[in-house]
Amino acid sequence: MPRLAVQAMTLTNAFGTGLEPTLAGLKAGQTALTPGDFPGLDFETWIGRISGIESHRLPTRLDDFEARNHRIIDLALDQDGFRQKVSALIQKFGADRIGLILGTSTSGILETEKAYVRRNPEDGSLPIDFRYRERQNTSAPAAFVQTLLGVAGPAWVLSTACSSSSKVFGSAARLLQAGWCDAVIVGGADSLCLTTLYGFKALDLVATHPSRPMDQMREGISIGEGAGFMILTRDPEPEEGISLIGYGESSDAYHMSSPHPDGIGAARAIAEGLQRARLAASQVDFTLLHGTGTRANDLSEDKALIQILGEKSTCASIKGAIGHTLGAAGIMNAVVACLSLREGFYPGTAHLASQDPKIHSHVLKEPQTQTGQHILTNAFGFGGSNAVLLFGRSR
Question: For the CA atoms of the chain, what is the radius of gyration?
Fold first, then answer.
């Protein structure tokens, strides 16, 4: 596929708002996970919670969109000159030539949880001020961002669980290649909520200690929250010096919540991504794993890597640092991949003490100073929805 230029990027997660806190935290090998203190949570776990989000307020004209998820999005878009870049592209191409493809898992379901607490005790009706369409509906993040930024091109939201904000890149590539858009904003967001926390607890997948992907003593995930965005164009000279050079997608159709134990679908997606990028497996310098810290996911992902990249490929997971941000996990990996290529480093895997002997890839414990050329990112969602991305430095 033709290279697509990364013209701007930003993200917000438990490390802080904007690129710099995440860059500094990952370079230092730090973690942003904290003991679970989310309101209503009554079991022991660690979470990646964004500090100060409760006090952030949206512009008055967007009151109907009031939701934790949208506050996180608003914070992210206000960093790293992202809004200014969008405004410049509107002036250059026109608002209707800028697409918007976002990913989320639960959107603003926290607002529905709050509404149910306040429902009428007599007839069970929800409060009259509850706005489902603008707050929880899967399409709400796109409507919010379109209204906030003033873009008017094709826009939709993908919701394929934890692969959501990786799959947006394939959709964006097709829009650009078809000539329907001159620029596409891609991204994703998910926020902490009791539905997610207790849902994963019910599946016995939540760790009581900070998540430690690929460790022989790993016990599950630490749930986080965050939002991230990029702008892709067909321009030959990316402002960030980085391009999207390939993507791959597949579906296991194996199980509702478990990955294929042999990583067949994940391997198929990686192979497709390499083919689309016109890369040999040996040209992948580093992989940002999906790496959730569950026993099934980590083993399955390692088998997929070995099938396509061979044993001892270098990789790491950032989920021990910021938590599993679910529908935002793909964009977190994508932005970190671009930062790694631009800044010349590979992040380590926080809390990894002793690698599982059943895992044969070379999993970094500590960050390393490295100037790579190509980075692969993985995202694998419930139901076997797999999406991988390949980013490369400018030639």
Answer: 20
